Amino acid sequence: MVLVQLRYNFRLYPDTAQREALARSFGCARVVFNDGLRLRQQAREAGEEYVSDGELSRRLITEAKSTPERVWLGEVSSAMLQQALADLNAAYRNFFASISGKRKGRKLALPRFRSRKDNRQAIRFTKNSRFKVLDNGRLRLPKIGDLAVRWSRALPSDPSSVAVIKDAAGRYFASFVVQAAEEEVLPPVGSEVGIDLGLTHFAVLSDGTKVTAPKFLRRAARKLKRLQQDLSRKINGSNRRKKAVVQVARAHARVADTRRDWQHKLSTTLIRENQAVYVEDLCVVGLGRTRLAKSVHDAGWAGFTGMLEYKAARYGRTFGRVDRFFPSTRMCSDCGRINDKMALNVRAWDCPCGSDHDRDVNAARNIKAAGQADFNDRGAQVRPGLVPAPRGEAVTHPDAACSTRSVEGISVH
Ligand SMILES: [Zn+2]
């Protein structure tokens, strides 16, 4: 089994006392790192031997704590300070490997001094520093406290280390390193599902489930719209406008974050509960030219189907995009008869065969059937494994060459 290191980032919300403790830790880690760098530079200039990792740790942490100049190092986690020196040692090792040609790639420079004015402050805790994710969801950091974390998803296993980062905007993040099996194939399940990405609902499933974007997301989107309208009324170059621009940017980021978190939960559930997931190949580019563009892009289907695709690959499920060459909306999923075109506002219809259809559920059932025919024929047409990278999670861009033919099935009147 191949193990990979995955990084999981979450926002942290330290309270006032914790922010002070973090500032102290950032400061101490910086001092120890810089002391180490200075000691090695001086040794080098004096023509002395390279100061070993062990000696550095003894002189700059253990012994330094008993001197009046550095007595305050005792106020922070010493394992965290060791880690700051470990970072310095790693930077030196990389530098030596680089100049000796052992390390490929561009040549590295010697480590540089850290400054309190750096855009990014970071400290690291490893297993032996006894950081802990508590049952109540808080992150316990030695000599700092139990910090509130916004968990946007679950960690797949126990993290081996965590870095705490403060960025230029004053936000705090926890970056966990987790060892994970490259493939975490889930035990097979019997059900398969077709998904109609609708306009009245975010998604409608072939089993009749209708998924609506949650209220908090719709509310946040409404607020964003209002802020954007406010912004358009502000005079160019005014202070009020500058303030409004920042507000819109913040609201926009919040909506995007919230939507991504929600889509992660939904896509994980769908992949866990189904052996195969089929969606229509929407060709969002084609749709985007119509007046539906705005709601389509708000719904963020491209990002969502991308999540389904890589999660299916990771967990050993089938994912298929079904070409919309057939009119999935007006074809009866029971008898296969193709009925007359329907206006968008027709939400339910009856087929002459006697079946009553909900428009979207019927479409989802057709998508499921088409997907099963395409992909499930015991490997006959299973598309070769081009597994998209799970990291980064960039929104997948629909093929620009997609022809308008693909959207024929969607009746836009
Ligand atoms: Zn029928």
Notes on the structure:
A seven-stranded antiparallel beta sheet has the order 2-6-7-1-5-4-3. The protein has a five-stranded mixed beta sheet with strand order 10-9-8-11-12. By secondary structure, it is an alpha+beta fold. α2 runs antiparallel to α3, α4 runs antiparallel to α5 and α5 packs parallel to α8. The protein folds into two domains: 179 residues, no CATH class; 216 residues, no CATH class. The chain is elongated, with a radius of gyration of 28 Å. The longest helix is centred in the middle third of the chain and has 35 residues. It has nine helices and 14 strands. 39% of the residues lie in helices and 17% in strands. Bound molecules: zinc ion (ZN).
Top keywords for this entry?
413 residues; alpha+beta; 2 domains; 5-stranded mixed β-sheet; disordered C terminus; binds zinc ion
Short recap of the structure:
One of its GO terms (biological process) is transposition. Residues 1-48 form the Transposase putative helix-turn-helix domain. With 413 residues, the protein is of the alpha+beta class.
